[in-house]
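FORM 7B: Structural annotation worksheet

SECTION A. Query
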Amino acid sequence: MNLIKLSSDLIRFKSVTPNSAGSLEFIEKILKKNKFNCHLLEFGNKKIKNLYAEIKGGEGPNLCFAGHTDVVPAGNLKDWTTNPFKPTIKNGVLYGRGASDMKTAIAAFMHASLEFLSSCKNKFNGSLSFLLTADEEGEADFGTKSMVNWLKKKHHKIDLCLVGEPTNPNYLGEMIKVGRRGSLNGEIIVKGIQGHVAYPEKCKNPIDDLLKICDQLRLPIDRGSKLFQPSKLVITSIDVGNNVTNLVVDRATIKFNVRFSDKHKSKDIIKLIKQRLKKTKSDYELNIKVSGESFHNSSKKLVDPLVDSIKKVTTKTPKLSTSGGTSDARFISKICPVIEFGIVGKTMHKTNESINIKDLESLSKIYLYFINNVFNAEN
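SECTION B. Predicted structure
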């Protein structure tokens, strides 16, 4: 199997979230041909596609690679120097939407897996599997989250998992993600009484209370921990819906996000927010949606084989980190140890998204060493 061709083939699918656009069916066909037992599943009203594929070589652990074929929209095509869904190679660089996040990592692990299976003739001490979705970049309600529930229901046990997100900020081998901060989104509707600005005694300006609330929200939460940055609440939007200067509005809205460390559960953060809001003595409505809890899951059975593999290929010693945004690892962490390692993420979600082909080839080698290390440790 040609790694560059496979990567290019995946980029060609216009799989803007949550549309698989045939990408998962394409992968299923390849894996079936190589004797994987495949389950192409659909969840939700939109019938969002997901794929679980497994090949069993022995009674040892099930090592799973998880990822997503969906991508964010390309944006203004005029800003691209190439067609985002027509993979282009220039000066050793592969361009296209999903090149960094994260179609090439899927290709690299498929390439490594099939090379491993060929070398051992499908006889090894364990199982290899893929957990892939087309619903990661959006709401993610009918992707890996639903797949984890399906796996539990059908008694498919994953023992160890590697998620192929682009974890390296600047160079390949720089960083492994061994956990993630928790995340929740909030909306506060501050209530007032509408009226004419010339008669403030007849109005209640919600902006006055909004300012008090903002002061409370911006107070520190914690100082972080050994592996986690300090928890942080960021106000992302303030809206009063007023285009004139002589009107006091009857409501104002604040939107915010909290990224929180392992010192807290989401319920602790929600309790703290409510306590701080109460101090303002404002009239408000609070709505919160939890995206995921913080987790730290650095099993030596995962970290040590991966660190060794990265050193062999790149001579770099990766940093173990929990920085950055959320990923589907937050769902997988509920059923097994999980870490994340993929390509360099400098251009993910940007126009002219791209990766260095040498990095892609090195990533596949790292994955191959990693697979061998995991199963050799079981012998």
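SECTION C. Observations
The first helix runs from residue 3 to 12. Residues 149 and 331 are 10 Å apart (CA to CA).

SECTION D. Sign-off
Analyst initials: ____
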